[in-house]
Design brief:
The complex is a heterodimer of chains A (115) and B (116).
Chain A (H helix, E strand, L loop, with lengths): L3 E4 L2 E5 L4 E7 L6 E7 L6 E7 L4 E4 L2 E6 L4 E6 L8 E12 L2 E6 L3 E6 L1
Chain B lengths: L4 E3 L2 E4 L5 E6 L6 E8 L3 E9 L2 E5 L6 E5 L5 E5 L8 E8 L11 E2 L3 E5 L1
Parallel strand pairs in B: 2-11
Antiparallel strand pairs in B: 1-3, 3-8, 4-5, 4-9, 5-6, 7-8, 9-10, 9-11
Classes of the chains: A mainly beta (115), B mainly beta (116).
Amino acid sequence: GENVEQHPSTLSVQEGDSAVIKCTYSDSASNYFPWYKQELGKRPQLIIDIRSNVGEKKDQRIAVTLNKTAKHFSLHITETQPEDSAVYFCAASFLISGSARQLTFGSGTQLTVLP
Amino acid sequence: KAGVTQTPRYLIKTRGQQVTLSCSPISGHRSVSWYQQTPGQGLQFLFEYFSETQRNKGNFPGRFSGRQFSNSRSEMNVSTLELGDSALYLCASSLGQGAATNEKLFFGSGTQLSVL
């Protein structure tokens, strides 16, 4: 099946520094790349997404970049705060057949922001 | 508007038993998908339902099955439980056709299944 590789699996940064999480995908027909944040004991929630016709998208301190040629996309968090500590999942939508698509998730990155 | 509701919150079963998990989507949402979450493995896709039809199934054995009712509520069943089935099972709903239209997923809090 299609694959999404996510790195690193754990990341510790000092408060105020930037954090970058990277994902690669295998299907060149993938066209949608969301990022979900899961705080400890809580449900995953969408924080930002990007579609294949866009190279970069920003929302305040969060940005996502997409390189379709290299088949990788990244999450950038600037000026990190303790409340950014969570597990972050990337995902890619790939084509099964016809119009059927499946969302495949990466294995997650545990981000810890140190005060 | 109420969020996605999953019941029960916790389950403890023994090997060989079967289990049924329930998911009530957000009102008006028509698509429900199920994921298995285990430490280090991320979210593994189980299946997706839209209008009572299974649109897609992940790479899980036939012991894992599901269905969706006319009110969009969904159930998943696992028969002949194995130790490796211990995991958090998450369902997510979306407004329209889910993955087919690249929609935002709204997750439930999950059912934590422990198989002894």
